[in-house]
Automatic annotation (TrEMBL), chains A, B, C:
InterPro entries named among the record's database cross-references: HotDog_dom_sf (IPR029069), MC_hydratase (IPR048274), MCH/BMMD (IPR052342), Thiol_ester_hydratase_Rv0216 (IPR016790)
Domain of life: Bacteria
Protein name from the UniProt record: Bifunctional aldehyde dehydrogenase/enoyl-CoA hydratase
Pfam families: MC_hydratase (PF19315)
GO molecular function, one term: lyase activity
Organism: Methyloligella halotolerans
Length: 350, 350, 350
């Protein structure tokens, strides 16, 4: 009898297959508190019911990155438990706000598959949808991972590579924004007078602070997200592995960096979409993570003159001064200190 | 004036005495979140209000092990603050479901007492009842501990050893299960198609994953349970003690093992009773805990054809491969790697 | 463009200036749970909705020290991000109870300013008010900090030193106590029979237990409070600094000591006012914190014969036996082990 906990290998995936992921999760104000202890978020909309209500939310929404982590966590046992690498994301959009008390579930469809030339593994493309208790999509994204084969003799499937957009176009974002009355957005309480109009394409922003990772922190975060990827929790195995230590969940770096972004982008309260992300290098306990952002693009949002979107390339870097903006070198390779390259659309008041 | 925080010694206990334990506790969704960060539980019933409601719960119940830890924590200052060893449990049953917002309190009755031949300590037997805000018992168990005497000259009490059942009989369990409509139990969302009928007596199940313990984690867990046993928190004292380090609360191992049990027993959503438990060896920060289970017995539940009970012997082991099922050796002694031997009744759909 | 995250320097403060601090925060039962995991509070009023309701609260109030940390956390980016030292507190009173769901915001008024003779820094006095969502003050205190100048050539402001009370007089405390029916206060459930009448001026109380600090714990606490002071989180910088390690937030020591106070002062459920506090020495991960209290004074509360106030000097000490009551030496200097000297008013039943 196969233990479902063993996870899927490359030959277990089939084009068109739909996977219902286990363990729906009711997200609560308790989760927001644990999340706050782990990342120290300070965006006013998600921190204060009153602030959120003043601009038209029924209550403070769940931080977008917490929604992301919970949805991705659900997919791990089925999609990436035996993954060698997370290769990419595309067509990643938040579609509905999530509030305390909502229950998130996730399904994935296999939209592409390609065995690698080595015959030992292959790339699986899935489109994952996180839904609320009413079945409404709250988050959707395509993702591709490299997965080992269990049985090297299993035949290669026909290669299908999905046609995915290079980036999310701004006319398709904002689905997770309810109708808002931004006239009541209080910039003093939000922590900065800097609005959409104050930022320029090409501008680089140093997010100043650094956060040193502890084993207990990244383990608690990853369990909070019910993410079971083994490399994060097991020193007995990982101590004998490639790095000699537990690997930090890549999403932990995303949330450290995203929440450091408050320093300089205090009003960028909503992460609306992700154009792409690379976990450039692994992170470990003891690393100090810094972040900086570059404004790649600006876009108005359909029919709204109160809010706008910034396309932001957020770099997570470690053990270095982010004031130097370490990113990509002239030869196209990343600087040694870069751990995360995260290209997203953020929404902020105009 | 005696500081109540000093706790009771052997001669402070008297047969028939009732102890009202301090600090009732309202259990909240916040506690569930902290618990999730500490143990990563994935049983769908406790994780999702919607899943729970679909089968007839008013809302997701509090995880049984969280209820247990809170009740046992209340008893520590009175019963086991000066205990040398936790010797056993019996007649341990969950009697009512506990929901967020319920307030747990605990009382214990001294049901047995026996001074040891050394004259330095003795065994105290108590029956502890955890009640909700309506005074209804939610959990009840007998427990015996070895406690030091304060004054070696104190006279020995008359020995009374209570008559405790060898194990909990299945006809007495299920009190904490409300009337359920298991037709709406979704096995895809629950994470496994394996039901009660799929398991056989004698079957061994490897729970695969390992969790490395961090000092911050076991301390936070033990404080969450308002358990004040000194050995878990004080490196200044324990550094000079027998082990040179802080001892991990035995219940921390129980919850690590219980929640690893999801891998292979995903549908065993309710821990209904405990037949006995031994903390076989101490655990410390840095240990990696694994778990495996053996099915000892199967039982139908009174008048219910939708759910059944499995008697499961759950072993917690450390720094070894659980696929080898390390347990009891031929000479009746435990394998070196065993830290927990936990004989319980679990309920799952048929 | 100045990044608001850089914080204020000495010359940015002006007498009479009002600072609206960023990021209002809705306090939830989730925060209470995280706080419980960090400090293990056991005061019954804050732990149990039922206990609180029995004496007249609508629901269990938020622990006072959690309210304090959240309010002080809001002031850090504006007031103390570039502070060299926290010099003192005065006229510190809790004014309204705070309940789960309440939203805290904070403003500060600059009430004094004095450049130091070195010309490199100065002292800034602020009066901070934490308000709830209705704008009602929940906590108010004066505080003074030493802050660096950014530009040494900036002219010195006119010196104004505010006239602050030496201590809070008992006739001005109790604002955060609703009308209570103390006849229903259950001393068994509260953990001790010792009431206000049982304590004497001059009495010293050993709070017994010790708590060893972990990096993950103080970082999670400090982030929970949205306190961004850089020295607590960044080993990359602090490893090269004066101490070679991250400094623990002084408030972390306050809450460890305050919650150890349960051992001996179990009924002192409300911290009503602070007369003054000194962070005598820095604390670091690995330190084991103990606490002891001396009763400095006793006071009746205006028109109430059911509760009374104790003026308590709470010492936090490290890596030593608190039974020795290490405090102030004959020469007026602190014993080496003292880290916190905290002079407060506590309220308890008579």
């Amino acid at each position: 009898m196969k233990n479902p906990a063993a996870g899927n290998f490359f030959e277990d995936f089939e084009l068109g297959q739909t996977i219902v992921h286990a363990t729906p999760r009711t997200v609560t104000t308790g989760d927001v508190s644990t999340f706050t202890a782990l990342y120290g978020p300070r965006f006013a909309v998600q921190s204060s019911d009153k602030f959120a209500q003043d601009i038209g939310y029924p209550v403070a929404p769940i931080p977008d990155d917490l929604v992301f982590h919970i949805v991705i966590g659900k997919t791990v046992p089925d999609v990436s438990r035996n993954a060698i690498a997370n290769l990419g994301y595309a067509e990643f959009r938040f579609l509905k706000p999530v509030y305390p008390g909502d229950t998130l579930a996730a399904t994935s469809e296999v939209i592409g598959i390609k065995q690698n030339s080595s015959g030992k593994n292959g790339v699986v493309y899935v489109r994952t949808t996180g839904t609320n208790q009413a079945g409404e999509p709250a988050l959707q994204f395509a993702r591709w991972v490299m997965v080992n084969k269990r049985n090297l003799d299993a035949p290669a499937p026909e290669t299908v590579i999905p046609d995915l957009d290079d980036h999310v176009t701004p006319d398709t974002i904002g689905g997770a924004l309810p109708s808002l009355d931004m006239n009541h957005y209080d910039f003093d309480l939000a922590g900065s007078p800097l609005r959409w109009d104050d930022f320029e394409i090409g501008q680089k922003i140093n997010h100043f602070d650094g956060q040193t990772i502890e084993e207990a922190e990244h383990q608690m975060a990853t369990r909070l997200f019910q993410n079971t990827a083994r490399v994060h929790f097991n020193q007995h195995i990982e101590g004998q592995g490639r790095f000699g230590r537990r690997l930090v969940y890549g999403g932990h770096i995303i949330s450290i960096a995203r929440n450091l972004q408050f320093n300089g982008l205090s009003n960028a309260f909503h992460w609306a979409a992700l154009n792409g992300a690379a976990h450039v290098a692994p992170s470990f306990a003891g690393d100090t993570i810094y972040a900086w952002s570059e404004i790649l693009d600006k876009a108005e949002l359909d029919g709204r003159d109160d809010i706008g979107a910034l396309r932001v390339r957020l770099f997570g870097v470690k053990d270095c001064d982010p004031a130097d903006f370490p990113g990509v070198k002239e030869d196209g390779k990343y600087e040694d200190s870069v751990v995360l390259d995260f290209d997203c659309w953020l929404v902020m008041p105009r």
